[in-house]
Amino acid sequence: MAATTDTDHEEQTDAPGGQPAPPPRGRGRIALAVSVFGELLITAGLVTGLFVVYSLWWTNVMADRAADRQGDQVRDDWAEGRGGSGGPGALDTKAGIGFLHVPTMSRGEVLVEKGTSMKVLNDGVAGYYTDPVKAELPMTGKKGNFSLAAHRDGHGAKFHNIDKIEKGDPIVFETKDTWYVYKVYGILPETSKYNVDVLGKVPEESGKEKAGHYITLTTCTPVYTSRYRYVVWGELVRTEKVDGERTVPDELR
């Protein structure tokens, strides 16, 4: 039997025409699967990135536009004498009832409307509670809790910097005829989203035991989640009548 040389072996493993033989079928299929999986991961990453951009940027743009249009309409109504002494329309209305000013949280104003549903808050506004605990609007003059909610991220993110608020800071609510000036006295950085006691007429969890004129700001926490609620409480310290120039209170200057 003739011996097999190295040259002979190479000639046997080469494909016809001198080309290298193709890899085994199993190995080729694995490589193809890895390639497809990698492409899917890249696509999924791009889709996720686009969704994040949409959620945290584009929804803010759209919500701010909607809030600006509604806010302009409210101020036009006031300037033309519509809306009575309690804001635009009756107190129990879906239209904006006034503007919230919290200098340490935001330099801008936040339109306040009725309700805390996603449909309301997604327009880049704050909403006053009608359920599960009904807010007491300050224009009624009655003691109670003017409780509000707004998004912390996306859709305007009006309460994004709520964690910047400290005790002693001012919260000002502006209506057609009156400035309501509150002072922050209590902060709860984290509580259950089912804790409705923070919205009570007398928010005992804030340390209060008697009825008064309170304001409560609530939003989701931690940032970019909705697991818990962040709460800020304030108490009315004075009111000021709005003059012809709508001169802002000292706290906003």
Automatic annotation (TrEMBL):
The keyword Transmembrane helix applies. It holds the Pfam family Sortase. GO terms for molecular function: hydrolase activity. CDD domains: Sortase_E. Keywords: Hydrolase, Membrane, Transmembrane, Transmembrane helix. Residues 1-26 are annotated as: Disordered. Residues 1-12 have a biased composition (Basic and acidic residues). The chain crosses the membrane at residues 30-57. The active site is at 151 (proton donor/acceptor), 220 (acyl-thioester intermediate). This is Class E sortase.
